[in-house]
Design a protein that fits this description.
This protein is an alpha+beta fold and 130 residues long. It has 2 helices and 5 strands; from the N terminus they run ααβββββ.
Amino acid sequence: MIPVMQSDITFKTGDCFSACIASILEVPLEKIPNFHFPKGSDFEDNVQEWCKTQSFALVSISNIEDDLLADCWIIATGKSPRGDEDWHRHAVVWRNGKVVHDPNPDRVGLEGEPETWSIFVQKDMKGGLR
């Protein structure tokens, strides 16, 4: 894992999730799309469509014991400590029960425990990222 910082820190279009993917895959942020675009599209659908082009499957889990995924690089998502609204979410890189990289420049992490853990499963990685 090579830490990559997010380039957009706004709540509605921030690219923290993309920066977490880039960090785990050890690629520049420019190789990962901002899944909030095109505007009006569904974030999760956009992530899954991109994953298909990269021979990944993304599995998201909302209830898991930390030791089950020991030594795995995970994207943990939860409430952002920077927003007043309940819908403000943030993503960080998680490993062995703790935040190991927060792509936001303030590096505060999440407010409380993660709500979702996202794990990339490699299907068939012929030729690297496309």
